[in-house]
Design brief:
The protein is mostly helical. The chain is built from 1 helix and 4 strands; from the N terminus they run ββββα. A two-stranded antiparallel ribbon has the order 1-2. The N terminus is likely disordered.
Length: about 140
C-alpha cells in the first residue's frame, strides 16, 4: 500500500491536493488506511435504517443504509420531506411576489408623475407656439 501523507497544520493533503478546491457531490476527498475509525454524522429521515454488519468491508460508494419507500404509516418519508420543502419554497415565493408588487407600485407612482409633468410641458410648448404664431400673424 502507498502511504498517504497529510499535514493538518498546513491544510495540504499530499495525495488529494488543495482542500479548498471545489468538489462534486459524492466525490472522494480523502481516505483511510490500516483500519482507521470513521465517524459518520448526517441528518436522515426517521425511517432510515443502517444495513451494516460486523467485520464487513465498506468501500467508496457502498450504501450504508436505506430509506424504505414507505414508513409504518404507508407514507413515503422522502416525499414528505420534499413536500415540506416545496411548501417552504412556495411561502418564500409568495413573500417575494408581495415584495415585487410593492416595488412596482413604488416605481409606478413617480413614473405616472413624470408622464403627467411631460404632458404638461408639451401642452405648454403647444400653447406658447400657438401664441407666437398668432402674434406673428397679427404683426
Amino acid at each position: 500500500t502507498t502511504s498517504r501523507v497529510s499535514s493538518i497544520s498546513s491544510g495540504i493533503n499530499a495525495e488529494y491536493g488543495d482542500p479548498k478546491q471545489d468538489l462534486s457531490r459524492g466525490e472522494m476527498v480523502g481516505g483511510f488506511n490500516f483500519g482507521s475509525t470513521i465517524v459518520l454524522m448526517f441528518e436522515a429521515p426517521k425511517s432510515f435504517t443502517f444495513n451494516l454488519e460486523t467485520d464487513r468491508t465498506i468501500r467508496l460508494g457502498n450504501p450504508l443504509g436505506e430509506i424504505p419507500a414507505t414508513d409504518s404509516d404507508g407514507e413515503n418519508p422522502v416525499l414528505e420531506d420534499f413536500r415540506d420543502t416545496l411548501d417552504a419554497v412556495e411561502e418564500t415565493l409568495d413573500v417575494v411576489e408581495e415584495t415585487l408588487d410593492v416595488v412596482v407600485k413604488t416605481l409606478a407612482e413617480p413614473t405616472e408623475q413624470l408622464i403627467k409633468l411631460g404632458d404638461d410641458v408639451i401642452e405648454q410648448i403647444i400653447d406658447n407656439t400657438e401664441t407666437e404664431r398668432g402674434a406673428e400673424k397679427a404683426a
